[in-house]
Write a structure and sequence with these properties.
It is built from seven helices and nine strands. The chain is of the alpha+beta class and 293 residues long. Strands 6, 7, 8 and 9 form a four-stranded antiparallel β-sheet that branches. A three-stranded antiparallel β-sheet has the order 3-2-5, with no helix packed on it. The longest helix has 73 residues, at 174-246. The chain starts with a helix and ends in a 9-residue tail after the last helix.
């Protein structure tokens, strides 16, 4: 009976050691077995694996595609324009041994920092040789491929596989955005002033032509009316002269009637004349001769 507790203790210790010697590798992971910081085994296949407990440790890394968003950087293009470029990368850990040797205990965070530096250097190197318009043109895909290839070369010692590099956005830096907007606004205002000035000038020309046309039209109309009036007056005088030549007495009678019509108008017309005057000849005699005394 005295040996029973010892046996139970040994059995429990054996179970504890066995449990600590086993570990599971997920299908989404890769694992390294380290002994005093040195790589002793690589476990890439999913399933159950073993290690020496208390002597060896297991470090696991994600075997899936990882994403890295790079902070926007200001790039000077070949055409002297400066743009803020925002990019991202997709990569996976291809060689866990080299990855561990490169980043040490820092893991993915250290790899992200070093890869971000390499990508920034690749952006400066590739985009510095092209004009800013290339980022917005069909050459954008080729540029991203070149940036990826340069980043792959710079990150070869990290044990990672860079799958893709993409430029999300390329725009003016915040410091220059306001100044650029003000300059564009001033340019648009200047163009608006020029358009208004040209419009005002064109309107003045139209008004001047209209005024000149109106003056010419009125002058021609007055000239024609004067000619017509003169011809009418001449014809009237000719008719009067012909009528006077045919019957002088009737013409005298007509002129007297016209004089009466013009003189005797209005309700307040008053005339003081001698009844024997020539003005009233046709009142005293039907033939316009003075009445006999």
């Amino acid at each position: 009976m005295r040996k029973l507790p010892i046996i139970i203790g040994i059995f429990a210790a054996g179970i504890f050691v066995l449990l600590n010697s086993m570990f599971i590798v997920d299908e989404r992971e890769k694992a390294l077995v380290l002994q005093f910081g040195q790589v002793r085994a690589v476990k890439e296949d999913p399933g159950l694996a073993f290690r020496i407990p208390f002597v060896q440790e297991v470090v696991k890394y994600d075997d899936r595609i990882l994403s890295l968003d790079i902070a926007p950087v200001e790039v000077n293009f070949n055409d002297k324009r400066r743009l803020s470029v925002d990019a991202f990368a997709r990569y996976r850990i291809a060689d866990v041994v080299r990855f561990r040797q490169a980043v040490g205990a820092g893991g993915v965070q250290t790899a992200d920092d070093r890869l971000a530096n390499n990508l920034n250097a690749s952006l400066f190197e590739v985009l510095g040789l092209v004009d800013s318009g290339a980022v917005l043109s069909d050459d954008r895909i080729e540029l991203m491929t070149r940036i990826r290839d340069v980043a792959i070369a710079k990150s070869a010692n990290l044990g990672i596989q860079i799958i893709d590099v993409r430029i999300k956005r390329a725009e003016l830096p915040d410091a220059n955005l306001t100044a650029t907007f003000d300059r564009m606004n001033a340019e648009r205002e200047r163009e608006a002033r020029d358009e208004r000035a040209r419009g005002s000038e064109a309107a003045q020309r139209v008004r001047a032509r209209a005024d000149r046309t109106a003056i010419e039209t009125v002058s021609i109309a007055e000239r024609d009316s004067n000619i017509i009036r003169g011809e009418a007056d001449a014809e009237r005088n000719s008719i009067f002269a012909e009528a006077y030549g045919r019957d002088a007495e009737f013409f005298e009678f007509y002129r007297s009637l016209a004089a009466y019509e013009k003189a005797l108008q209005g309700n307040n017309s008053s005339m003081v004349l001698s009844p024997n005057g020539e003005f009233f000849n046709y009142f005293g005699s039907p033939n316009g001769r003075p009445a006999a005394e």
